[in-house]
Specification:
Layout (H helix, E strand, L loop, with lengths): L2 H21 L5 H12 L6 H11 L2 H6 L2 H6 L5 H24 L6 H12 L6 E7 L5 E9 L9 H11 L3 E7 L9 H15 L4 E9 L2 E4 L8
Parallel strand pairs: 3-4
Antiparallel strand pairs: 1-2, 1-3, 4-5
Helix pairs in contact: 1-2, 2-3, 6-7, 8-9
């Protein structure tokens, strides 16, 4: 058997072993990423690539949520592979969002926080999202309110009020990210929360919570007693 034939046979057998380990729920994180990459890079040993991506980004989760440009910049990741990875990210987001459409978030906060993490992790600029909820606190809409810079994004409380009335929302969740890791609510964030809360209270619309996503952590204004 020629060397290239032996290599092909080994890869085929190795990938089948990965599939069997997946079915038995015994894959390590890097093996899970390796399995995913094997479907889009069929003719190459992707073990070094999987390990390298996790070393660079920190975890499988952070690879999936990394910006597409950052993935393409990594040696060995082409445009098609980066799109494949981001497609998985989009599928995960869609799954959580469909749950928010049907599940009362008050009774399953974990779904909401996971959605927030998936939505905001890896962003290089601050974004503000407003989630509008019906009377049962199911998701009516997730609106991208604004995109700013690395450490600031504009907010318009009256626009939030206008949109809430259009949707007949009964409560909202405010959400934004801090690209700088492990930074919680700023003084400006707290002031904004209070301004929106007081404005919406005039028409009996509640601010359910305000989340900040930073460094893989979801900070809750309600849990930190910032929503009085």
């Amino acid at each position: 058997m020629k060397p290239e034939e032996k290599d092909l046979s080994f890869r085929s057998g190795h990938r089948e072993r990965l599939r069997q380990k997946f079915l038995a729920d015994k894959l390590t994180d890097y093996e899970l990423l390796e399995l995913l990459l094997s479907f889009v890079i069929p003719r190459r040993d992707v073990r070094p690539l999987a390990r390298g991506l996790i070393d660079k980004f920190g975890s499988v989760y952070q690879v999936i949520t990394a910006p597409i440009d950052s993935l393409i910049e990594y040696k060995g990741i082409g445009r098609n592979t980066a799109i494949f990875i981001k497609a998985i990210h989009k599928i995960m987001l869609a799954g959580y969002k469909s749950n928010l459409d049907n599940v009362t978030i008050f009774h399953n906060e974990k779904i909401l926080t996971n959605y927030c993490l998936l939505l905001m992790t890896g962003k290089t600029k601050e974004e503000i999202h407003i989630l509008y909820l019906d009377e049962d606190r199911r998701l009516l809409a997730d609106d991208l309110h604004s995109v700013g810079t690395v450490d600031w994004a504009a907010a318009y409380p009256r626009e939030i009020l206008k949109r809430a009335l259009e949707l007949n929302a009964k409560s909202i969740v405010m959400l934004h990210n801090h690209p700088k890791p492990n930074t919680s609510f700023s003084t400006e964030d707290i002031k904004l929360t209070e301004q929106v809360r007081d404005l919406l209270a005039n028409v009996d619309i509640d601010v359910h919570d305000h989340y900040v996503v930073s460094g893989g952590i979801v900070y809750s204004a309600r849990n930190m007693f910032l929503l009085k």
